[in-house]
Design brief:
Structural class: mainly alpha
Number of helices: 10
Strand order of the largest sheet: 3-5-4
Radius of gyration: 20 Å
Number of strands: 5
Shape: globular
Largest sheet: 3 strands, mixed
């Protein structure tokens, strides 16, 4: 009984901690369970950025391409609602020529590989990829995922204390890892929607996001699946939602003059 009481206390502590870590996102209007304050997200992202870059061959030596990525990213931040966010964005091109990937760290560091950049066919498509990753940052997806992981680990610990069955604990950890793995489908779709908003506000044609879906779909037909697709819904499944979001944002049709 004593062990069960301790297990209950551990479980309740994890649940209360999760439920009370609620914050309203001023850019999305969404109430979220988050583990970190914006300044903590920034500190975490920039502390881990060098290690993440090193794992993918370091920064590209192509200074012109690096400048292009940086210029497009900075335009997106400067000329969209993202300028109101508390985050410190920076944009980096990674040297890895084979891995097709892009990702964002908490607080603002954003990376794209040479392997993905070379497949993109226009400045607007590069903007669409970066806009999607910016969406993850301003939607605070990393902080929300950390909060879920903390809840999961707290409940797993309660099971360990209460049952003493470490086989069950191992199964729980596996299931928890699957649940919390990377970003969820809804996170990715939300980032697509935010990316469309961001690139449109910055003067890019939002249909470039559909172009990115096409590029990724074509890349996935090769022998090796692009790394970016291991954590994202299939491009063909996202394309319909992207079209809906564009129609919602531009009910009279996409205006002329946007950069394609």
């Amino acid at each position: 009984m004593g062990r069960l009481a301790i297990a209950l206390i551990v479980a309740l502590g994890a649940i209360v901690s999760y439920c009370t870590s609620t914050s309203e996102n001023p850019l999305t209007g969404e109430k979220q369970h988050v583990a970190l304050k914006p300044e903590q997200e920034i500190a975490l992202g920039y502390r881990t950025a060098p290690e993440m870059a090193a794992r993918m061959g370091g920064l590209s030596r192509n200074e012109k391409a690096r400048a292009t990525v940086r210029t497009i990213g900075e335009r997106l931040v400067r000329e969209s609602t993202v300028a109101k966010s508390p985050y410190k964005f920076s944009f980096h091109l990674l040297a890895d020529p084979r891995t097709v990937n892009a990702f964002a760290l908490p607080g603002g560091p954003i990376f794209i590989t040479e392997g993905l950049l070379r497949l993109l066919r226009s400045e607007a498509e590069v903007a669409a990829v970066l806009g999607h990753e910016i969406g993850h940052v301003i939607a605070r997806h990393a902080s929300a995922r950390i909060a879920k992981e903390q809840l999961t680990q707290g409940l797993i610990g309660a099971v360990a204390v209460g049952s003493g069955d470490y086989t069950s604990v191992q199964v729980g950890q596996l299931v928890g890892g699957m649940i919390n793995m990377k970003y969820g489908r809804e996170d990715e779709l939300q980032s697509d929607a935010l990316g469309i908003r961001i690139i449109s506000e910055a003067g890019y044609d939002p249909r470039a996001m559909l172009g990115v879906m096409e590029v990724l779909a074509n890349a996935s037909k090769g022998k090796r699946q692009p790394e970016i697709l291991s954590t994202h819904p299939a491009p063909e499944n996202r394309a319909a939602r992207v079209q809906q979001e564009i129609a919602k944002r531009f009910p009279q049709g996409v205006p002329e003059g946007l950069l394609r």
